[in-house]
Design the sequence.
């Protein structure tokens, strides 16, 4: 049975900082330049995931057409001109009787590029983005058996 956890963290407390990365750069996702490469990377990372894997271009474009989509909150990690990771932020403005909340909507790192601090760097940039939007809280969903993801999110201050 699949268990999905919802984790939170305050954006009012100290945020993690991005360590200087020599092997990769962080840039903003530009749909006209990055859609196809992102889709291929997403499908490779989440090949066996029931929700995030096996996306078609229409799946990506449908989400980019949502009112919440903002490419300024969509970050990619690049090494040698190749996308090796990403972190996509969604801001929930439509919550009833609640202030807006930032969500790490989806984050992934190429399996061949793991253990280089890419996820930590992307997460730190995403949290900083949310804090600069004056949000008080960040949240995310993660599978309960995703050991690597849970360790990363704990490191980023989620619980």
Sequence:
């Amino acid at each position: 049975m699949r268990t999905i956890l919802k984790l939170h963290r305050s954006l009012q407390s100290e945020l993690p900082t991005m360590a200087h990365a020599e092997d990769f750069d962080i840039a903003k996702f530009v749909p006209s330049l990055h859609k196809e490469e992102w889709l291929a990377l997403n499908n490779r990372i989440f090949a066996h995931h029931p929700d995030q894997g096996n996306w078609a271009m229409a799946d990506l474009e449908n989400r980019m057409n949502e009112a919440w989509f903002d490419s300024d909150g969509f970050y990619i990690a690049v090494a040698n001109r190749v996308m090796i990771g990403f972190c996509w932020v969604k801001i929930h403005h439509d919550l009833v009787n609640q202030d807006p909340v930032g969500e790490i909507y989806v984050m992934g790192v190429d399996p061949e590029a793991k253990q280089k601090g890419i996820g930590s760097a992307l997460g730190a940039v995403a949290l900083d983005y949310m804090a600069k939007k004056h949000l008080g809280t960040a949240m995310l969903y993660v599978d309960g058996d995703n050991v690597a993801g849970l360790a990363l999110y704990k490191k980023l201050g989620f619980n």
